[in-house]
Write a structure and sequence with these properties.
Two copies of one chain form a homodimer. By secondary structure, chain A is mainly alpha-helical. Chain A has a single domain, classed as Arc Repressor Mutant, subunit A, CATH 1.10.10.10. Chain A has helices at about 5-10, 30-45, 55-65, 70-80, 80-95, 115-135, 140-155; strands at about 100, 110-115. In chain A, helix 4 crosses helix 5 (about 80-95). The longest helix of chain A has 21 residues, at about 115-135. The first copy, chain A, binds a DNA duplex through helix 5.
Chain lengths: ~160, ~160
DNA sequence: TATTGTTATACTCTATAACTATA
DNA sequence: TATAGTTATAGAGTATAACAATA
């Protein structure tokens, strides 16, 4: 569709197929969901060569930024249930991207750390994620991108007390 | 945590547990995902009394705004695979919220429409969703909310040609 | 031949209960 | 008693192939 047609459709609340969005277009939650699906789609394609999914990339970044932390701490920070993080760590160890070390102070917990291979993959990931971010924000200028980040941060985290 | 502590944590890239977010805090995709999880959480709690999940509410809104459209059309507009929309329509019919009518022009397709009960439930939904939206945007003023909607719309839909 | 709705199926994500070893 | 990691499992959500009816 042309830019003019898109503008007309947006104004009338219709999409490409001629369907009316009804009130959906005015809902933050709906727009958020649609935007997120689009972003994940691009992320998945971008990171397929590295064999990393969004949650795995987040986990590697977090382990790298917080070496020695436990599985519970990393999982909690990512909003992943502890049982579901076990399989992810298993795969990281299988691929030699991260290691579980027995904690010296509490033998129940595992001190996590990236391997050299993990650090190397993460360096590649940082390059790829930069291109990915540029692509998804292609229709935003730098001011708009910063403002979007700020507003999302206001929406996302728990309220300060 | 106090507002001052939160501000300090945000500046240093740390969360409530003292973990560094690393580069995650600077990624649109990450902020988008976290914000969306929070929004869905509130939506789920808000709509539990109506027995509606986000995808179901979206479907009811879309059917109401586009009566007579086919399952393929509604599903495509929502980004749902056609096979997966069958079970949703089955439940709508079981709960007498929507009906499948044989199309007069193409006997393969179903013309969808809400029942009176469906319209009534949707009216309740509109009230609830308004309160929900107000809650999730509580820390945004009206200008900020409008700007967030605009920026998300730029992110979400396919590029105009 | 192509399309609509459907069935069957599989794969991923997510959530919970319960076990073990440590504390 | 409580906690960290783990196992097992169950429920959503999502994706594809193939079939019957119809175009």
């Amino acid at each position: 569709m042309t830019v003019a047609a898109a503008a007309r459709a947006a104004k009338s609340g219709e999409d490409a197929g001629g369907l009316s969005e009804g009130m959906l277009g005015g809902l933050l939650g709906y727009r958020l969901r649609r935007a997120q699906l689009k972003v994940f789609e691009d992320f998945l394609a971008s990171f397929a060569p590295l064999g990393l999914k969004p949650a795995q990339f987040s986990a590697l970044v977090l382990i790298a930024a917080n070496p020695g932390r436990s599985q519970r701490e990393i999982a909690a920070a990512l909003g992943i249930q502890r049982p579901n993080f076990v399989a992810m760590m298993d795969e990281f160890e299988r691929r030699a991207l991260a290691r579980r070390h027995r904690s010296q102070t509490d033998r129940r917990s595992h001190a996590l750390a990236l391997t050299e291979a993990g650090e190397a993959l993460l360096r590649q990931g940082r390059t790829i994620v930069a291109a990915h971010e540029a692509r998804i924000a292609a229709r935003l200028n730098e001011t708009e991108r910063a403002e979007l980040m700020r507003l999302l941060a206001l929406l996302g985290p728990a309220a300060a007390d």
